[in-house]
Design a protein that fits this description.
The chain is mostly beta strands and 313 residues long. 2% of the residues lie in helices and 39% in strands. The chain is built from one helix and 20 strands.
Length: 313
Amino acid sequence: MKTEWLGWALSAGCLAVAGHAFGQPATPETVLGGKLFYTGGDVQVKMMPASAEFTSELGLYKAAEASQRKQLIATSRETDRVVTVTAAQMKSYGIAKGDELIFGIFVPNTSHTYFMGDGTRNPDHIAHCNVTIEPGKGASVGFEDAFGGGDRDYNDNTFYFSGGIRVAPPAPPAQANTPPDCSKARPSATELWPPNHKLVPVTIEGITDTEPFKVQIVSVFQDEPVGAGNKVDAEIVDGSSVRLRAERLGKGDSRVYNITFRATDTQGATCPDTTVSVSVPHHRGAETPPNGPVTYDSTKPSEAPKSKGKGKK
C-alpha cells in the first residue's frame, strides 16, 4: 500500500493540550469497541509504549475499508512521538465536525487491518480496540493486532488522543430491551480427551437474557493446520453448535480452538461477538496455550496431497 506523508506538524508544544499534559486518567472508563468523533480544530495523537512482536501502522481512514487509508500517522515502534492533525488537514480529507474519526492499524506481517468501533468492521468480526476515556481531556486507545483477538490485553498498539475529539461508545441497539449477556459464556467442554480423531459436539453455555435468544457461531479457528484431504476439524451445526475434532499434533504442545459466536434475542438485541476456547491437550494435565497464532479456519479442509503417479517417458 502506498503511503503519502503530508507533513504532520510535530513540536514539543504538542505534549500539552488546552492547559493539561498527556497522562493516564485517574478514574478511567473503558469501552470495548469505542469510537471517536471530530469536534473541530486540531487533534493530537501521542504514540504510547507497545508490547507486540509485530510492528503495526496507525492510520486515519476515509471509511472502514483497508483501501481507504487517508494518512499514515506513525508506527507502534515510535514511542512518545506526538503528531498533530490540523483542522486544515481534516478539511482537506473531507472530515467535518460531527464526523466519526475512523482510525485503524495495518499489520504488515499478516496484511490485516483492524479498525476502531465494533467487530463488524474487522476481518474476524471481533472488536480490536479498547477506548479508555479521560472525561473532558482525551482518550487512550489500545489495539489488539492478532486475527481472532489475540490475548485481548489491548496493548499491541497504544496511543493517546486529545484536542478536537469526542469519545462515544458503540451505538446501542435500536430496541429498548437489554441484549443477551455473554460475559460469562463458556463452552460445554473446555477440553477434548482422548485425542481419538472423533468429532465431539460442543455448545455455548452461560448466556443469560430476559428474552428467548438464539446463538449463532460465526467462526472456528485453531492454532494447528487442518488435517489433509477432505477432512475438516470443525463442523458448525445449524449455526448454534459445533463439532470439534479431538485431535492435536503429536509433536505439538496441544491444540486450541477459538469459537466466536453472537447471541440474538427475539427482540433483535445482539450481544457483541464473543470468543471462547476449547483445547486438545498433548497429554493429560498439559497446559494449552496457543502454539502460535490461531489463524487456521477449522471448517475448511487443507489442500489434499498430490499423488505422485507414474512419470512420462
